[in-house]
Amino acid sequence: MTLTAASTTETGTHRFSVADWLICLGLVLASLVVGLVHVPQHQQISPIDEFVYIDYLAKVSTEGVVERGEETGDYAREYFACHGVSMYTEPQPALCFGPNFDEDSQYPFGGVTSADLYTPLYFGTTWLMVQPIQWAGVQDLAQAGRYAGSIWLAFALVFMFAALRRIGISRWVGLGLGLLLAGSLPSYWSHTFVSTDATALPAGALMLYLAIVFMQTLRFGWLLISASAIVTLFKLQNLTAVAAVALSLVVCAGVEWFGRSELRVKERLLRAFKDKRTVVALSAVAAGIFVQAVWTIIRSVIAVGPAPDQLVSEQIGFRALIAEMFKFFPNAVNGATAPQSLGVNGVIVASIFAIIAVAGVLGLIASGDRRSWGFSLAVGTLVVSLVAGPALAVANLATSGFYFSLPSRYGLALVPMFVCCAALLFSRKRWLANLVAISGGAAFVVSLAITGAA
Fold first, then answer.
1. Residue 368 in contact with residue 358, Cβ under 8 Å?
2. Partners of residue 8 on adjacent β-strands
3. pLDDT surpasses 80 at 6
4. How far apart are CA 170 and CA 127, in angstroms?
5. Hey, how many other C-beta atoms are within 10 angstroms of the C-beta on 300?
6. What is the mean pLDDT of residues 269-291?
């Protein structure tokens, strides 16, 4: 199959030069700047479940895994009492300096954790990252855990840049879009607090990079399948990234074989199904679903009590599922809350990203060569963005026994695909490439002026 893209060479396997490595270093430094600027401003706990994540991080080195029905520990409870939760509760000095933290009713969910949903992979990995940060002088575990978010972000930026270079995107555009990602609201919410969402952007960027490598070489399919299982174990929602690249591969195979007019329809369908790209794609999705199914069983077996009532349960119905279809595209670029909660700078950053994301995905579908990887990626990304919401809602109902309106941040793993589509589209014209690169850099600078949730 011939892969084409106007001003890019999608089949090009660009070797990393010294200049590429220097840009990667620059992106790593940008991720560190994000942490150094924002983390010291966080006086309160993030409302996005950081309380139970801090608890898990404090326990992972000794307990390994947090069990369903388990009570939160003293460290997290003291942190909650002394710092409060942004947009919800103020610090409680009497409780903070009290003799003990045994009164369950004083804490979220009656003192019972809700983080048992997650495997210990994120927390164990972050705990390892925290060690050198604490040796460097950041003694507080929660604070060090927040700084570790910059390391997760650095992985995302480097894999994102590497993926763009593999398909021939210029260094200038790759740098600009990397800065756009670094300064985005998902980076603010997921990489400057302790959050399992810190795995989403790295997962999406990694899956994108491995899919491109496989697409270009038709080798290393086992690596794509293995990575699918691993990123899904970090967090179920990362399966959206797996599904997006998998569907892209299936579309690629389908376009090739259904373009063979000399073959009968049944033969085209059979060959498309047996195509290596289709086999690897389906295997990758199956691997992600399998490991999550195993983890669901393990959670049930080791449970010590019922899950807490988080008071978010709603009735699921046709209208609710339709609403879920439009949660992720392009709202995933807004991060955890409405951009307005972070003031005018938050609105500017989110708006720039949303425009670039929508234009990239829809523009490639409307004007892209159907034989190109970009077209397949855009189709796969858009379809999964629309289907993933209802699918995750049903999956949560099946695994947790209740439905709740999904936050747009559950689609964070799709954001690197939005970026890649934008890179392919805007690279067709030099002035557009320059504009998107400059916009990314400008958004990064503006994001550094965000002072916290209003």
1. no
2. 5
3. no
4. 36
5. 10
6. 93
How many residues in total does the chain contain?
454
In this structure, what DSSP letter does residue 372 have? Answer: S
CB neighbour list of residue 309: distance below 8 Å, 6 or more residues apart: 109
Q: Residues 72-114: pLDDT tens digits? A: 999 999 999 999 998 888 998 888 887 778 787 888 888 899 9
Backbone angles phi, psi at 20, to 5 degrees: -65, -45
Axis-axis angle for helices 141-166, 200-217 (nearest 10)? 20
Cα 116 to Cα 136: distance, rounded to the nearest angstrom = 31
CA separation for the pair 177, 330 (Å, rounded): 16
pLDDT in tens, 166-184: 999 999 999 999 999 999 9
Between CA 289 and CA 294 the distance in angstroms is 9
Helix 141-166 × helix 50-63 angle, to 10°: 100
Torsion 68-243-403-45 (CA) sign: positive
- List residues bridging with 45 in a β-sheet: 85
Task: Identify the residue whose tokens are 């919401």.
Answer: 389
End-to-end CA distance of the chain: 52
Least Cα distance to 428 among 209, 213, 169, 163 occurs for 169
pTM over 0.85: yes
Question: Which 3 state secondary structure label does DSSP give 60?
Answer: helix
Whether residue 180 contacts residue 439, with contact meaning beta carbons closer than 8 Å, is answered with yes
